[in-house]
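quick one before i forget lol
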Amino acid sequence: MVRTRVVQTLFAYYKDQGKTPLTARKELLKSFADTYDLYFVLLDFANALTAYAQQQLEEQAARSRATHREWHANRRFVENRLAQQLFDNRALRARIQEQNLSWDSGMPAVSAIYKLLIESDLYRQYMASAENSYDSDKQLWRKIYQNMLPQNNELLDALDEMEVVLDKANWTTDLDVVLSYVIKTVKRFTENSTPETELLPMFDDESEVKFATDLLDAAIRNHSRYEELINTHLKGWEADRIAYMDRIILVTALAEIMEFDQIALTVSMNEYIELAKEYSGEKSYQFINGILNEILRDMKQDNSLLKAATLRHV
């Protein structure tokens, strides 16, 4: 995710000629904060869905009273203990309030996912089960986050809308990664978890943010040098016909390979080839791998590469 954000920031930087390196750095750091906000928003989805379910129960109760029909609500979902722990969590509530994060503009997704949930076997079995334990409450939410939210079109549309309303960016880019962090967080909760239970930090290691800003700085500072290397090794490709994203990925990859000798070459190569598969054209990863291999082969021959070169073939 760190490299993805650097590439996205560079893409915007070179598209907007009026930006400065300092502006790019600020945008990079904001993108990390925005992604961290998404983590809290998705954790708070449990509260939004529970509140919506409670509202549905109240409306059903009102209809029953109006028609003088007897109706007994099954309150198991709205009284889910894991959802209550998330609602009570002080770190979550503080972030939601401080950043003015809200599901208000995302309610169409809440409604659609609730309908999907109550029609599912997962929900029916949960509501009818004789077992009423904390573990079953927790497993329900783990499965909602793991099975119902990824690739959900209503959720994607809602996050796009919320991005605009909340002044965020690229929320759906790493949605699956952020959902994995949410699932990891859910797994950490126990029946005895208190409102002071710690959530995941923005970075596993603070060195990650330094790596990101240093990588961005290196890519901008040495951009002309990297572009010259790329153009020299095109061999039959016309420079002006190369996809813009491919150039940005190549520049970033070269910045990492040449400036961060402590990172294994195979790691750098793998990361940018996978990034190309995800964010560029269908055959871009093969083109990027070929150009990098050509550049590295020449650097190995003239001993200008600081780390051992093991060329990758894809």
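fyi Residues 222-301 form a domain with the N-utilizing Substance Protein B Homolog; Chain A fold (CATH 1.10.940.10).
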